[in-house]
Amino acid sequence: MRIKNLVLKNFRNYTEERFEFSEGLNVLYGKNAQGKTNCAEAVFYLCTGVSPRTGRDKQLIRTGEECARIAAEAETRYGSVSVSADIFENKREIRVNGCKITRNADLLGNLNGVFFSPGELRMIQDGPDERRRFLNVSISQLSRAYYTALVRYNKILEQRNTLLKNRDLSLVFETLPVWDVQLCRYAAEVIMRRGEFLERLAPLAAEMHAFLTDGAEKLEVTAERRYGSDKEEIAAALEKELSDNYERDVRLGYTSAGPHRDDLKILIGGKEARVYGSQGQARTAALALKLAEVEIFRRTAGEPPVLILDDVMSELDLSRRRKLLARIEDVQTVLTCTHTEKVLFGKTVNKIRIAGGKIRH
């Protein structure tokens, strides 16, 4: 997969700019706060329909403007594809090959992207929300069925939680089983596909981590819990757990079990990374997970995704910079940094200097 060009109009600090990308390493360089990360963000937005930096699309619009536009043309193993997004304060319009789409699910899979920035350390160091987000964003690009099931699960979960706050307890206990049948149907799809993804991710992440650390430390990634091996078994196990927790859930006012509560265990050298890992260990573990994600895309989609590395090199020592560049030689990469000479090591790359939201030649 290769993104050939990217057009930004009234996006963040850009008035209007067009980027031409090469097949390999594309380095966006310049001083801080000039717009490098904004460009990287735009690429990922066209891949997933979400920003890795904000949950509010209107923040993407240049101050004083009414609409922002992002558009890209790409070549994939299936042929050419164009994707555009017009973002307004209260809505957006996304088109794939000129056809307007109404569901985000129809955007996913046209362009695949993996995003890594220093903020991804939250995936290792923070609570389970960040690890679930990693799973959701990655698997959704690989499986529209997963994304659809996740959206429907969350809608039913919201309705179930509203019911749990109702003071008419007879109504609550009478209605909960009806909601649970629907909830468990979609939950089973989510849980099963997460399990399949994790089976592929864990050995690849361990391999990438060993490569980055010269085998000095062992990375282990496992699911915190398992519900079963097939959808029927998973749905039945979760339905029983929900039933057993009725009184507790009513007391709490929310649903205490299900994939929205799941977590990953990430161990480095047998110890929980979130608790015992250093900043450097967390950074290397997060990078190993992202490189494993790239490999899963390659094997599943038949071609690597575009890899977006935002301000990563400054946080890595010389050895790991070299190892990272060696590992991604055949992956189209958009990399942001402040000084190109610190990351290139003699490689032929497409260098783009950014200053004040403009390409400077």
In CATH, what is the homologous superfamily of the largest domain? RecF/RecN/SMC, N-terminal domain
How many domain regions? Answer: 2
Query: Going across the major beta sheet, what is the strand order?
Result: 2-1-4-5-6-7
CATH class annotation of the largest domain? Mainly Alpha
What does this 3D model show about the protein?
With 361 residues, this protein is an alpha/beta fold. The protein has two domains: 1-112 and 305-361, 3-Layer(aba) Sandwich (Rossmann fold), CATH 3.40.50; 124-304, Glutathione S-transferase Yfyf (Class Pi), Chain A, domain 2. 43% of the residues lie in helices and 24% in strands. The strands form three sheets. It has a six-stranded antiparallel beta sheet with strand order 2-1-4-5-6-7, covered by helices on one side. Helix 5 packs across helix 6 (231-244). The longest helix has 45 residues, at 169-213. The protein is globular. It starts with a strand and ends with a strand. 39% of the residues are buried. The model has no long low-confidence stretch (mean pLDDT 94).
Outline:
With 361 residues, the chain is an alpha/beta fold.
Task: Record the SSE blueprint.
Layout (H helix, E strand, L loop, with lengths): L1 E10 L2 E7 L4 E5 L6 H13 L18 E10 L2 E10 L3 E5 L2 E3 L11 E4 L5 H4 L2 H15 L1 H21 L4 H45 L5 E5 L7 H14 L1 H7 L11 E5 L2 E2 H4 L2 H23 L4 E5 L7 H10 L5 E5 L12 E6 L2 E3 L1
Parallel strand pairs: 3-13, 3-14, 8-12, 12-13
Antiparallel strand pairs: 1-2, 1-4, 4-5, 5-6, 6-7, 9-10, 10-11, 14-15
Helix pairs in contact: 3-4, 4-5, 5-6, 5-9
